[in-house]
Amino acid sequence: MTLDLTPADLITDDWRVHGSIYTSPEVFAREQRALFHGPWLYVAHESEIAHPGDYKTTFAGTQPVIVTRGADDGEIRVLLNRCRHRGASVCQDESGNANYFRCPYHGWTYRNSGELRGITYDAAYGDIDRSTLGLIRLPRVDSYAGFVFASFAQDGPSLVEYLGNAAPYLEIVSQQGPQGIRLSAGSHRLTYNANWKLQIENTIDNYHFGFVHKSFLDVLADRIGQAPPIMQNVMNNPEWRTIDLGNGHSVHEFGDPRTGNNQGQLGDLPFNLIVFPNLCFVGAQLRHVLPKKADRTEVRLYPIMHEGVPDEDNAAILRVHEGFYGPAGMGGADDIEVAFDRVSDGLAADEHDWLIMARGMDNEQPGENGILIGHAADELPQRAFYRQWKALMA
Amino acid sequence: MSNEISELLYEEAAAIDERRFEDWLALYTEDAIYWVPQGEEDDPVHRVSIAYDDHRRLHERVLRLTSGFAYSQDPPSRTCHVVGNVRVTGEADGAIHVASNQIVTEVRRNVQNIYSGRFEHELVAADGGYRIRRKTIRLMNSDVPLGNVTFLI
């Protein structure tokens, strides 16, 4: 469809949100420029590339990238996974260790720093300047509390400035184990045919839990012999709250941000956290949401393993994670069904194409450092996301 | 190989396909493990699995599938298992190890998915027959992004 609304019109002051933000290829293309081509993007946890020469492949927005740790200097770089010659991807594996990446098409070879090392039969290129033909490198890479971010923008706020009020929460995540954390257990990989933002919204939506996850709550009741207290806490516990952290980031705290408990046997992170635009923490996992098309998304769920604990403790984290999350989990699949697939079905009825994200909009309480605090079941985190979305898309 | 062994695999497949989930669960021992590894992984202690269920969780899956509120199974998946290449691969710890190749056709919400893989059963003698002490399902597509595999495989 041709969009006759500007991005500024797509979200109204009374928090009506236009359905085309989920369905329009034009909006999607604009997002890739506005949201994924300037702000800091999560790409890796340092534990995934712990040793010189280690690499992982992932995506910065829709762009395939290789995150490498320099074989010589230990520096972390983020490189476009695309040969400068004729465009073939140069690295196929999800992770590994390599000093060089060799393009299989015509044999051009790059150091894992990205520098072009060799052109095969190079005489025919004359005086070509190899120093300008390395793998394209994202100009800025930085880490915070072990989480590696990169930006396509040469200039802009530092990572710490960008993370802002979200930074202390990342530190808490990084301290989940007595000696820190590692992403060493692999990841669940999910896919669904709907927009990536639906996954972000759903990750920090407490309002839905008693409805979409009724079957899981019934399972929990059978497991513990009584009704689990999740929804009572969501609705009535003043220490469970949602916070707009600024810059699009948001959190849902289950009480104290260091010791909170979701009461749902969903994993032991003390909060759900969104780091704008596509990094989430929920349950016991780091969740990386990868937009593919307006109506296609891949999600990678990385269980967070604790450093300094016995193997069986980490195995227990995996078992809890698998119980709810992943393609066979007893909760996450219901989110895909209801919050993504059925929403996608419904959005086809675009004769009246407005959604409502106003829950609690008149009860946002200002806190320190510019934060806004809301009720646990308010749509405040979604508004936090879309405030930033609207500012960047305008 | 005794008929009893292949018959048990056929009965398990039929119980799933005919949605006789209590009958299905009764085929498992109380200490059973139902494991769907992801990719080539062989280490459920250190690596995440698609499912690594003990009997308690299998009971919970059945509870959920029959609750009427498991939206990812509303409408339910229709499945059809084909069990082939059944062979006994060994005997250890009082269990007979059986390998099979299975193809599971699944239809849901107007989409047909084909899953296939190498299945491993550990069977122990019980009640004059056999019960399943461990089932490992090595799906061919376990390392590609998946949608909804909340049905019994």
Features:
heterodimer, A: 394 residues, alpha+beta, Rieske Iron-sulfur Protein, 9-stranded antiparallel β-sheet, 4-stranded antiparallel β-sheet, 27% strand, B: 153 residues, Nuclear Transport Factor 2, Chain: A, 6-stranded mixed β-sheet, 3 helices, 21% helix
Description:
The complex is a heterodimer of chains A (394) and B (153). Chain A contains eleven helices and 23 strands. Chain A is of the alpha+beta class. Chain A has two domains: 42-155, Rieske Iron-sulfur Protein; 168-393, Alpha-Beta Complex (Naphthalene 1,2-dioxygenase Alpha Subunit, Chain A, domain 1). The longest helix of chain A has 16 residues, at 332-347. Chain A starts with 15 loop residues before the first strand and ends with a helix. The mean pLDDT of chain A is 96. Chain B has 153 residues and is of the alpha+beta class. Chain B has a single domain, classed as Nuclear Transport Factor 2, Chain: A (Roll). Helix content of chain B is 21%, strand content 45%. Chain B contains three helices and six strands. Chain B has a six-stranded mixed beta sheet. At the A-B interface, strand 13, helix 7, helix 9 and helix 10 of A face helix 3 of B.
Could you write a compact summary of the structure shown?
Helix content of chain A is 26%, strand content 27%.
The protein's oligomeric status is heterodimer
User: Largest contact between protein chains?
Assistant: A-B, 39 and 34 residues
Proportion of residues in β-strands of chain B: over 45%
Report how far the terminal alpha carbons of chain A are from each other. 20 Å
Can you give the mean pLDDT of chain B?
A: 96
Radius of gyration computed on alpha carbons of chain B? 15 Å
H/E element sequence of chain B: HHEEHEEEE
CATH fold-level name of the largest domain in chain A: Naphthalene 1,2-dioxygenase Alpha Subunit, Chain A, domain 1
Helical fraction of chain A: 25-40%
Helix content of chain B: 10-25%
From the alpha-carbon coordinates, what is the Rg of chain A to the nearest angstrom? 22 Å
User: What is the CATH class of the largest domain in chain A?
Assistant: Alpha Beta
